[in-house]
Amino acid sequence: xxxxxxxxxxxxxxxxxxxxxxxxxxxxxxxxxxxxxxxxxxxxxxxxxxxxxxxxxxxxxxxxxxxxxxxxxxxxxxxxxxxxxxxxxxxxxxxxxxxxxxxxxxxxxxxxxxxxxxxxxxxxxxxxxxxxxxxxxxxxxxxxxxxxxxxxxxxxxxxxxxxxxxxxxxxxxxxxxxxxxxxxxxxxxxxxxxxxxxxxxxxxxxxxxxxxxxxxxxxxxxxxxxxxxxxxxxxxxxxxxxxxxxxxxxxxxxxxxxxxxxxxxxxx
Length: 268
What we know:
Layout: E1 4-7, E2 18-25, E3 31-35, E4 40-47, E5 50-54, E6 57-61, E7 65-69, E8 75-79, E9 84-91, H1 93-101, E10 110-112, H2 115-127, H3 132-149, H4 161-175, H5 183-190, H6 194-205, H7 209-226, H8 232-238, H9 244-255, H10 259-267
Antiparallel strand pairs: 1-2, 2-9, 3-8, 4-7, 4-9, 5-6, 5-8, 7-10
Helix pairs in contact: 2-3
């Protein structure tokens, strides 16, 4: 089957968000040497599977997966014999804002979607003609909205959801002393939307991510005090708090006394 490519005429461009083209790649597009795009591309796998490498990230992609390519960031795409994908290429000031708003970057660029998203892409490119720019922008914004809502994760996980969140919990257990651990870092590390990650973690473990993180940190602080650590400032840094004042507030909330008072009680 022939590729379908809908080019957008310059007079239809909106300025802040410029849609360049809307393409269905039906010929095997595999490239083993890195190539660099001059625009953003939002892509969706229609058939087959491929290995996508972008920056230092390697991702296996399969039908219904949405992935992004970024201006100036080299990537390779090695597909199997059946591999087909669709993409909308775009650029502009609003494009940059959208990528930042939804935490989409060269470290967080593959999202599992539901089949309804792929069906919408196929219908849109099939029936778009003189209004290709409107159809392509509609596809772009609709897909971004599903990513923002976390809709893309619930039904189509590459591994068991419970196991995936046990891995996240284990990551927190092993890295709680890192002061840079954050929702942004976790969402990037595990390729989840922040909103979904926060709500799903709480649903899974009946405790919020930061409440859990603080519990682990304060328990560790208490264990260090039992080992005769007496400096609240040192305790803060050893437990992952970059601000000793914040550490004291969290400690008092959990233990109902300040770190200094807890240390005094232990010594007495």
